Amino acid sequence: MSIIRRHSNQLRTLEDHLLDMRAITSLARVVGLQSAHLRFQSSSLFVDPSMVKQKLDSLSREQLAEFLLLSWHPIVELEQLTLASTKEAKEFWENMLSFFERRKRLHLGPFDNPAATDIGELARMRVVEEKAYTRKMQDLWNELKERAGKDETVDYWTFIKASDFAHTVTRAQLVSFLVSYGYANLQRKGNAMFLVPNAKPNPHLEGSPLSLPIPITKEALVRAK
Amino acid sequence: MLFFKRGRVPGARSWELKTGLGKGYTKILERLDENLKDLDLEVKKVEPQTQSDFKHVPEAGEEESRYFVRLKGTLAPKEARLCGWRIDNLAALAAALAIVVSKQGKSERKELENVIGNKAGRWRALTLMDTFLRSGYLEEDEEGLVKLGWRTRAELDLPSLMTLLAESAGPSVEDGAPVDEDQASMEG
Fold first, then answer.
1. In chain B, which residues have their Cβ closer than 8 Å to the Cβ of A86?
2. What is the structure's pLDDT at B131?
C-alpha cells in the first residue's frame, strides 16, 4: 500500500489510474483471502490435515462411526402423494405416447416378440453351463477309471488331449480338481506324467501337499497319442 | 412445508415460508421449535454456503436460507442401522467430512477415495463417494474439487465432529491395517 501511495501523485493518464485501481483491488482480494483463512484457523474446525489423516488411519471404523453419530442430527423427511403431484403424474401419464409410438421414433426396425428359450440354447450362448461342474468332474473321473483299466494308469497328456485347444484346457482344469480333491493321483516318471484314479475319493484334509504347475504347450500335445 | 419433501431437497426456503405464513414466519418457526422439543426434534436454519468455504457471501440473502426439521439429539448405532446406515458407511462419511473440513472446505476426490478406501475397500470407496455426492453430504464443483454439501450443513455439527476426532485416543489395534481390497464390498 505504501508503494501505491508513494506513486499516487505521479498518476497522469487514465491508464495509470486503471492500473492503480487494479493493484488496489488485487491487494483487497489478498486481504480478503487472509481474513477467510484467519477466520477458519480461529474456528474450532481448524485441525492440521496431516494430523487428521493420521487420526483417521489409527481409528477403527466403529470409533469413526461413533464420532459421526455423536455429531449427527438427521433431517426429518416425509414423502407422500399430494393432490398437486397426483394431478401432475396423471397428466404425464395421459400425455405420454404409447410404447410402440415411442419406439417408432427411435427407428429400431421391426419389433421381435419375446420368445421362450431352453437350457440347450442358453448353453450354446454360454449363458449357463449345460452340466454342473461337480457332474462334469464325476463324468471325467468315471472316464479316467475306464481308460486306466487294468494298468490303473493313463498318460496325463493323452488323457487331457481333446479335439481342440479350448476343450483340452477345460479337461486339464477338471483333472487338476480331480487330483486336488483326491479322486486321482498324479505320478511323475522321468519326463512322463501319469494319472492314477482312486477307487474312492481320498481328499487331503490338510490341503494338497504339492502344487504342480503344468504348462499346456503345443509340443506336449503333439507328443500325446 | 418443513416436514414433507416437495422437491429434491427437503425443507423450505425463507421466501416460501414468508409467502405461506406471512412476514412473522420467524416467530411461528420459534414457536414450532419449542413444540418440537418434546419430540426431540428442532428447526434448523441453514444459510447458503456459509460453512463450506468460510467466506462471506455478499447478501446471498435471508431469502435463500433454508429451514429443516431435524433430530435434536443423536442416534445410537443400533438406531442408525435401523435407518439403513452401516457402520462402514458412517465411518466413511466421518472420514470424508473430516478431510474436507481440514482442507478448509475443499478436497480432491481422489484423496477422499483413498482415505475411504483404507477403511472400506477401494471399490466400496468409489460407490460411497457417489452416494455421498448424490445424497447431498458432499458436492463436486466445476473444478472437480469436493466440498461440503447442503445436507452436511443441515445435519452435521462439524465443530463437535472435529473436536471428537482431535481429542480421540491413539492408535487402536483393530483397524490399524488397511482393509483388503474388496473385503467390505463383498458385503453388498
1. none
2. 92
Contact B155 A75 (CB under 8 A): yes
Helix ranges (H only) for A71-108 are: 83-95, 99-105
pLDDT of B56 above 70: no
Does the structure show a pLDDT above 90 at B104? no
Cβ–Cβ < 8 Å for B119, B88: yes
Instruction: Please count the residues of chain B.
Output: 188
Give the tens place of pLDDT for each residue, A158-215: 899 888 888 888 899 899 888 888 889 888 888 888 999 988 887 765 555 667 778 8
DSSP character for B58?
A: T
Question: Distance between CA atoms of A59 and A61, rounded to whole angstroms?
Answer: 7
The set of cell numbers assigned to A214 is 503344468
CATH architecture of B78-179: Orthogonal Bundle (1.10)
Global model pTM greater than 0.80 = no
Cell numbers at B182, concatenated: 474388496
Please tell me which of the candidates A37, A56, A70 has its beta carbon nearest to residue B95. Answer: A56
Q: Give me the sign of the Cα torsion angle A188, A192, A193, A195.
A: negative
Residue with cell 460407490: B127
Cβ partners under 8 Å of residue B157, min gap 6? A71, A72, A73
Chain A residue set in contact with B, beta carbons under 8 Å? 32, 36-37, 39-40, 43-45, 47-49, 51-53, 55-80, 82
**What are the residue ranges spanned by the domains of chain B?**
12-73, 78-179
Q: Which residues contact A113 (CB under 8 A, 6 or more apart)?
A: none
Number of A/B CB contacts below 8 angstroms equals 162
Give A43's contacts in chain B (Cβ within 8 Å): 54, 159
